Target: Dioxygenase
Amino acid sequence: MDAPLPALFLSHGSPMLAVQDSPTGRFLDGLARHLPGPRAVLVASAHFNAPGPVVTAAERPATVHDFGGFPPALYALEYPAAGDPALAAAVAGRLRDAGFDARTDPEAGLDHGVWVPLRRMYPEADLPVLALSVDPWRDAAWHYRGGQALAPLRKAGVLVVGSGSFSHNLRALDGRPGAPVPDWVEAFTAALRRRLLEGDVAGALDWTALPAARLNHPTPEHLLPLFVALGAGCGAPAGLLHEDVELGALALDAYAFGLHA
Model:
C-alpha cells in the first residue's frame, strides 16, 4: 500500500442506523468511496468492554444483537463478515509488546457498535473484521497508548476504527421532531472538536476538564474509542468528516486521523 490508511472515529448512534434513512446513515453509505480499500477492519467498540485489551479471534464471528426494545426486523439482520485469527494474534501481540495485558477471544462476536456502521460502509461484508475492547476503568491516555501501538497496522492495509458517540447521555434524549440541542451539548462538543482539529492531543485527552463533560458522558465507554483512533492516527490533527445531532443530545461527529499521512 502506497500510503497508510487513516484511522477513523465514527459515532454509531442508535442501532436503527443500520436501516434508517438519516444524514449519518447516508454519510456512512458513501464513506468507503473516499478511502483506500483496506484488507481488514479493526473496530474498537464502545459496546465491547473488558479489563485489558481483548481482540475477537473467531473465524466466523457471530452478529450480536446487544440491544432491546427495537423492531423485530433489526434482530433478523446479520453481518456475516469473516474474522482473521492470525491478524487477531498479531494485534494482541503488538499490544503486549507495548506493555498491555492483551489477549484474543475466539468466542466473542461483533456487537452493534461494530456491525451497524460497517453494514452501511461495507454492505457486502466481504472484509475480515475484528473487534477490540475498551476498558471503562482506564482513562483516555491508556486508550491513546493502545491506539499508538496499532498505528503500524495502517500501513499494512488495516482500517482502524473507533466506534462510539461524540456525546452520549441517553437520559437527555428528546424524541420531539426538531428537538433543540442543549447548550451543554454544544459547549462540550465545540470544545472537544476544536482540540481535535487543532491537534491538541493533551487537551483532548483531558476531556473531563471540558465544559459539561460528565453530563455529555455520564459513563466514558462511548468516548474511549475516539482516543484509540487518535492514537492510531499518531495524534495528527483530525479531519472532520461528518457532524450531526440526533434526538437533541446525541452528537454524531465522525473524524479521520492521518488521512493524508
